[in-house]
Amino acid sequence: MIQVTPSIAIDESELEESFVRASGPGGQHVNKVSSAVQLKFDIRRSPSLPNDVAVRLMKLAGSRLTQDGVIVIVAQAQRSQKRNREEARERLLELIRAAAVRPQTRRPTKPTKASKERRLVSKDKRASIKAGRSKPGAD
């Protein structure tokens, strides 16, 4: 079990990893070793995620989300397979942690009497400035 937050833990079996050849640093070694990691996590079939977290996660995933509701994270920045694997997992966990935070609901407020007064005073001042720009006989 991978502990994401105090209330959310994901089972290792829910993650699907595949290793492919990476582009980037490594010289000739890159052509011989599959060091890039593709980490797949099926949001819709995951029993570990509460429904509201899953919905927020789908919105956060953006282009990493497939039509089937699977997040695909590709990590290939590191030269070793192990470090790419750790990086991909950490990126997934960060996404889930971000989705686990409930957005605060906005409470509508009314402007105070003083702020209304300030707004009206500034409008009067601006109007008088613009009125002063007109030609003298334009009444």
Automatic annotation (TrEMBL):
<dbReference type="InterPro" id="IPR000352">
    <property type="entry name" value="Pep_chain_release_fac_I"/>
</dbReference>
<dbReference type="GO" id="GO:0072344">
    <property type="term" value="P:rescue of stalled ribosome"/>
</dbReference>
<comment type="similarity">
    <text>Belongs to the prokaryotic/mitochondrial release factor family.</text>
</comment>
<dbReference type="GO" id="GO:0043022">
    <property type="term" value="F:ribosome binding"/>
</dbReference>
<feature type="compositionally biased region" description="Basic and acidic residues">
    <location>
        <begin position="114"/>
        <end position="127"/>
    </location>
</feature>
<feature type="region of interest" description="Disordered">
    <location>
        <begin position="99"/>
        <end position="139"/>
    </location>
</feature>
<dbReference type="InterPro" id="IPR045853">
    <property type="entry name" value="Pep_chain_release_fac_I_sf"/>
</dbReference>
<feature type="domain" description="Prokaryotic-type class I peptide chain release factors">
    <location>
        <begin position="21"/>
        <end position="37"/>
    </location>
</feature>
<dbReference type="GO" id="GO:0004045">
    <property type="term" value="F:peptidyl-tRNA hydrolase activity"/>
</dbReference>
<protein>
    <submittedName>
        <fullName>Peptide chain release factor I</fullName>
    </submittedName>
</protein>
<dbReference type="Pfam" id="PF00472">
    <property type="entry name" value="RF-1"/>
</dbReference>
<dbReference type="GO" id="GO:0003747">
    <property type="term" value="F:translation release factor activity"/>
</dbReference>
